[in-house]
Amino acid sequence: MKFGHFDDKAKEYVITTPHTPQPWINYLGSNDFFSLISNTCGGYSFYKDAKLLRITRYRYNNIPVDSNGKYYYINDDGVIWNPGTMPSGTETDTYECRHGLGYSRFHSSKNNLEADLLAFVPVDAACEINCLTLKNNSNVAKNVSLFSYVEFCLWNAVDDSTNFQRNLSIGEVEVHGSTIYHKTEYRERRRHYSFFTVNAPVQNFDTSRDEFLGAGNGNAFPEAVRRKKCSNSIASGWYPIAAHQIDLTLAPGEEKTFVFMLGYCENPADNKWEAPNVIRKAPAKALIERFDTAEKAMAAFAELKTYWETLLARFAVTSSNEHIDRMANIWNQYQCMVTFNMSRSASYYESGTGRGMGFRDSCQDLLGFVHLIPERARERIIDIASTQFPDGSAYHQYQPLTKQGNLDVGSGFNDDPLWLIAAVSAYLKETGDYGILDEPVPFDCKKGSEVPLFEHLNKSFHYTATHLGLHKLPLIGRADWNDCLNLNCFSSEPGESFQTTGPSEGPVAESVFIAAMFVKYGKEFKEICLRTGHEDLAKEAESAVADMYQAVLDAGWDGEWFLRAYDSQSAKVGSKECEEGKIYIEPQGFCVMAEIGKEEGLAEKALDSVHKHLETKYGIMILQPAYTRYHLELGEISSYPPGYKENAGIFCHNNPWISIAEAVLGRGDLAFDVYRKICPSYIEEISDVHRTEPYIYSQMVAGADAARFGEAKNSWLTGTAAWTFVNLSQALLGIQPEYDGLAVNPCLPKNFGDLKIKRRYRDAEYYIDIRKPDGVEKGVAWMEVDGKKIAGNQIPLIPGKKEYHVTVQMG
């Protein structure tokens, strides 16, 4: 069952009913100012940091769900409704929500009154613009009262939701014309404020929530909207909001457009005030003036659309498969941008109040983003590396505003250091910018500790190389990529953290997964060393990688698949010897990606075991059999009900690893089948089962053991986005950035057909025509560049050349 459809030409998903199984959301913003918006206008806004600079308030786990946002109430002769239907819930005569790239548009009507609402964040401004047009489609005049409504958050979203004895006394606002300024705490340490304005005179306003809603009333039918009159209230303490009242008369066929804006401003510390207790409004006035007419707002919207057209043109495919073209050209790249901006910090599932930017997460997100805006990827690498500790280990998270390590979970996740090598190698392959390796980067953000970025990579490599267990495999620490596999942290009491209870580092527990990472990214480190004149270090890296490869063969192979780990007692995890959790997905994918066991014939056995034991119609499960009781020695992974999350759920993040691994072996049919099963476009038809957005990847799909097999959870912010784009663009379509240029090496199903790819790479345009005979899954028979055949499958880089025309014959 579908609840909408793709409009590929407009690059939109069109939702045709407000009654989706979950809120289906979109992200507005591409730099510093961000908003989340659902298909019923729920959501919230923040500047840079969803925890520390939250602008509007949102209530998680609320009933009804998703019932706080930027709302517009229409009172048309006593009938109260909203363009997105919430929060009144009044059924409209027509409804449509179009989620596009950085914008959402709502089109609805009731009783011959039509509403069109466009919401977007301009490319280079700290504000959200809402253009609302009302049109009278009846044959009589309509007298309409229009009300806007936002509820301000008191900045720190954690404090806002917990510290009521203080917060219910600090709310402050100012009102100047049609602009309502939120200035809570501005008088003390803060020098920033927000505002909500409209480009028209207002009859009345409210800034007190209780006055607007009515004491004890919800937000479905505010008292002010019922009586068609705001009270010009000024919030003092209590709950500050911004609400405008605009009364208008529309003649038959007449329409009027209003531009509302939610903005954020900062003042210099020594220039905060216009007068005693009167905030300096010059930045706000300048921002308002930029967008204070419909013409100016729509020009900014056109600029936003051009911005996205330009970005997405950096990689575009034309084939006979609409699902591939749709995901590669629009939605997968779009989600990669969102995950790069947000990491795992702000969604409808991650509240943005605890987790900041993940060290591991941001490094992986960069893999799918680096081709879009390489200069921003460069900045992110420096930010991430700056939080690393001098020994090569790392904070697991950091706050995007302060860029300081987040102490909530600290460090000790021993896969983290190697992801930095993965990110930097991807950046170097994309850009050829070896200068980044000489950039001075501190440890733990401490001035005076700066060393070249290269030394951070060296520390990352050697941290793993020097933290080995009894089987010469890497020590797992608190956890590796799977944060719920806690082999050193023994949590036995309610309320304890699975990941931080007990030691972060044990002398025994080891990870085969980190071993595979070390082999894969150790090879990249060796290559970087060779290209920067560190020959001795390259030889050391080569030797260490070879030793790790052998350690995996000696101690990480279980006969039919790769082991997952060794626990604190040196017992096997992910082995046929285990009662539950006999086989895990992660080492099968990553070991084969690292080509461990390829020559020995083990790689094919491992992937065959994946298809035999883990594959389902909705994707590949993370492990089998599911854990049915709590295992103290394994931790959180065994705390979930069977089939959910890390306990035998279909964890979408690592399904691409299996697809990439199949491509390593040249098995195109199998690689594509793995890709297809979790691809949103392919599974749109089962949206009633899947429940989350059909245009975006989710973190998890309930596995075969679950009561709700096939139901997805936690959409948008997942490493699935970057890894599926790497899988699609590099492993399947075969466009692979290398240190010395683009290589072309597709791996596709036997009957996929020909395709064309346009790729922007190092300031040049590549037009690649791939001819694929039926029956061929992988292999390049010959390749021509600008009409001349070349040896191999890597396009030679020619300095100054701006355009390449490439023909590839598979065979």
From TrEMBL:
Residues 307-734 form the Glycosyl hydrolase 94 catalytic domain. It holds the Pfam family GH94_b-supersand. Residues 11-277 form the Glycosyl hydrolase 94 supersandwich domain. It comes from the Bacteria. Keywords: Glycosyltransferase, Transferase. GO terms for biological process: carbohydrate metabolic process. GO terms for molecular function: carbohydrate binding; glycosyltransferase activity. This is Glycosyl transferase.
